[in-house]
Design a protein that fits this description.
- This protein has 352 residues and is of the alpha+beta class.
- The chain folds into two domains: 42 residues; 247 residues, Sandwich (Jelly Rolls), CATH 2.60.120.
- 22% of the residues lie in helices and 30% in strands.
- It contains three helices and 19 strands.
- The relative contact order is 0.16.
- It binds calcium ion.
- The site of calcium ion (CA) has 5 residues, from loops.
C-alpha cells in the first residue's frame, strides 16, 4: 500500500521529472522519462481522490510495534483488559481457548473530523471451518473499558462498531458465508442481536475469508465527510476491496478507539498487529460546515432495537389450516356416528 503524497511533494516531483526529460540527450532516455512522467501524473489523479491522507500516522491514536509500555506505563496511550496480552509480534486479544474476552482501548479521545483507521490483524486457530469463534470488533465509542457480550465489549454502546464475525450463530441464513465483516452504529439504546449475528442493526457488510491466512490481513475503516467506508485487504495482494460504503453516518467527536475479541464454546487466537490512524483533510473549498453532533445517528435510519419475528404463518396458510382442522373434526364425528350406529344395530340383532 503506497503512502499518499502530499500536494507539495507532487509539485516538487513533477518539476524534477520535467527537468530530467529536458536534460536527456538520447531518444530512448526521453521516451523512458515521458513514460514515467505519464505514469506519475496518472497515479497522482488516482491517489488524491478528492481528499488527502496525511503521510504520517497519528501516533497518539495508533497502536504499533514494539508496543512499549502498553497498558502498564502512565505514558502509554492504550489500556489492556481481560485476556489481552502483549508479545513482540502482536497484541493477543484472546488465545485459542474457550470463554475468553480481551480488549485494548485508546486513552485519548479523538477529535479529528475525518480519519482513516487501518487494522492489521490475524485470526487463527485449530478449529475447523465454522467450529471456531467468535470474532473481533473495532470500536469508536463514547464508552471504553467495558467487558461485555458484544465481541468482548458492552452491549447498548454509543458509537461505531465494526465486527469481524467468524461464527454463524443464525444458521437459518445459510446464504451468508462467514467470516462476515459488518458495521453498526449505536446510540446507547440499540441491542446487538448476537443470535442473529447482528443482522437487525447492521449497516451492511461483506464476506471476508480471512481465517488462518498465510499472508497479512487488513481492514480499513474510513470516516470522511460523514461517509463510512470499509474495505478489506485479505488476499495477500495488497489491494483494497470494497466492503461497505454508507453516507450520512454522523459520529460525534471525542470518542475512543478500541478493539476487542471474544471466544465461547468455540475459540480462535485473535491477534492485533497494529491499528494505524491517519488524519484525512479535504481541500478548503470542499470542507463542509458541520453542526456539532452530540448523538450518533445514520440518515434515513431509525436506530432502535428491532425484534425480528420468526416467520409465522401467513393469512392464507392460517385460513387453510383452520379449514382443514374443522373438516378433519367433522369427518371424525361422522365416522364416530356411523360406527356407533353399526354397533347399536349389531347389539339389537343379538337380542332378537
Ligand atoms: Ca456470530
Amino acid at each position: 500500500m503506497a503512502a499518499t503524497m502530499t500536494k507539495k511533494d507532487l509539485v516538487w516531483r513533477s518539476s524534477e521529472l520535467f527537468i530530467d526529460i529536458i536534460n536527456c540527450r538520447d531518444m530512448f532516455c526521453q521516451i523512458r522519462w515521458v513514460f514515467l512522467f505519464l505514469l506519475f501524473t496518472t497515479s497522482r489523479c488516482w491517489s488524491v481522490e478528492g481528499y488527502e491522507r496525511e503521510e504520517f500516522l497519528k501516533r497518539e491514536y495508533s497502536l504499533t510495534k514494539p508496543y512499549q509500555g502498553l497498558g502498564s506505563s502512565s505514558s502509554s496511550h492504550w489500556d489492556l483488559m481481560g485476556t489481552a496480552m502483549i508479545t513482540t509480534e502482536h497484541v493477543r486479544l484472546t488465545p485459542d481457548l474457550q470463554s475468553r474476552q480481551g480488549a485494548v482501548w485508546s486513552r485519548i479521545p479523538c477529535y479529528l473530523q475525518n480519519w482513516e483507521l487501518r487494522i492489521h490483524f490475524k485470526i487463527h486457530g485449530h478449529g475447523k471451518k465454522n467450529l471456531n469463534g467468535d470474532g473481533l470488533a473495532v470500536w469508536f465509542t463514547k464508552e471504553r473499558m467495558q467487558i461485555g457480550p458484544v465481541f468482548g465489549n458492552m452491549d447498548l454502546f454509543t458509537g461505531l462498531g465494526v465486527f469481524v464475525d467468524t461464527y454463524p450463530n443464525d444458521d437459518k441464513y445459510q446464504e451468508r458465508v462467514f467470516p462476515y465483516v459488518s458495521a453498526m452504529v449505536g446510540n446507547g439504546s440499540v441491542k446487538y442481536d448476537h443470535e442473529r449475528d447482528g443482522r437487525p442493526s447492521e449497516l451492511g457488510g461483506c464476506t471476508a475469508i480471512l481465517r488462518n491466512p498465510s499472508h497479512d490481513t487488513f481492514i480499513l475503516v474510513r470516516y470522511l465527510q460523514r461517509r463510512l467506508t470499509i474495505m478489506t485487504d485479505i488476499d495477500g495482494k495488497q489491494d483494497w476491496r470494497d466492503c461497505l460504503d454508507r453516507p450520512g453516518v454522523r459520529l460525534p467527536q471525542g470518542y475512543f478507539f478500541g478493539a476487542s475479541a471474544i471466544t465461547g464454546d468455540l475459540s480462535d487466537n485473535h491477534d492485533l498487529i497494529s491499528m494505524k490512524l491517519y488524519q484525512l483533510t479535504m481541500p478548503p473549498e470542499q470542507e463542509e460546515e458541520e453542526d456539532e453532533i452530540t448523538v450518533p445517528s445514520v440518515d434515513n435510519l431509525v436506530l432502535r432495537s428491532v425484534e425480528i419475528q420468526d416467520e409465522g404463518m401467513s393469512g392464507v396458510s392460517l385460513f387453510f389450516t383452520i379449514l382443514f382442522s374443522v373438516l378433519g373434526c367433522f369427518l371424525l364425528v361422522v365416522i364416530a356416528i356411523v360406527l356407533y350406529g353399526r354397533w347399536k344395530e349389531n347389539r339389537r340383532k343379538r337380542f332378537y
